[in-house]
Amino acid sequence: MTLRTPKRTGRIGMLGFALLALLASGGCMNDGGKNDPLPVKSHGQAENLVRGLIDSLANEYDLKVDDKTVNKEFFRCIGEKGESADDGRFNLDYAVRASLPEAEHGNAIRAMRKRLEADGYKVSGYREDRSKKPWALMDAEGGKDDVSVTVQSSAPPTRLTFIVTTRCYLPAGTKQEQVSAPAADAIPVTPKDPRLALMGPTGPAYPDNPFG
User: Fold this and answer.
1) What would the 3-class secondary structure string for 13-78 be?
2) Long-range Cβ contact pairs of 203-211 (< 8 A, separation 24 or more)
3) In this structure, what are the phi and psi dihedrals at residue 204, rounded to the nearest 5 degrees?
């Protein structure tokens, strides 16, 4: 049977189309994007994505990261207004260091910046300033995987630290839960920053920067 679209659609017809669209979207009106479909990845896939990015950045300056310095944490996704769900959705924070003489940090970060910008990342923070600690620093975000990237000098001064934070992922085979705004007294939990574990004691050399 062939369905034909009528040439003229009255008010009732338009309302019908709107109702069908609403049903097709799961019956949800505009919720600010909090229930948009999440990308699906396992913990292992998320870690492979992040590590692949870090290794490729390190290769821009012929560096190899030290696996013994890896600090990673999977944590529960929390929305901008404290929304949460019980469907296993998660973010990944991953940090690792590479050895590099301090005098070369600026050159290395410049090479990595060029690579990230070519890949569509937006550099949101950058400096090479010997009067500040860390003196070499770059923050970027976006790219095809929509992640946040930081590369910076760290203590001891012969190290560069790479930090990547992913977007929210839904585990494979899991049905995405629809979320609503949290109760007024709900307090989102702030995940532990992996840089704290990597940098170690800062001491008096870095009085203004808890990350070294």
Assistant:
1) HHHHHHHHHHHHCCCCCCCCCCCCCCCECCHHHHHHHHHHHHHHHHHCCCCCEEEEEEEEEEEECC
2) 203/155, 205/133, 205/155, 206/133, 206/134, 206/155, 208/132, 208/133, 209/132, 209/133, 209/134, 211/134, 211/152, 211/154
3) -70, -15
The two tokens of residue 209 are 């920067």
Backbone angles phi, psi at 120, to 5 degrees: 90, 10
- Nearest partner of 162 among 91, 70, 92, 97, judged by Cα: 97
Least confidently predicted of 47-51, 135-139, 180-184: 180-184
CA distance 187 to 81: 9
**Is the pLDDT assigned to residue 188 strictly greater than 60?**
no
Contact 40, 169 (CB under 8 A): yes
Total number of residues shown for the chain: 212
- Phi and psi dihedrals of 53, rounded to 5? -65, -45
Average pLDDT over residues 92-119: 97
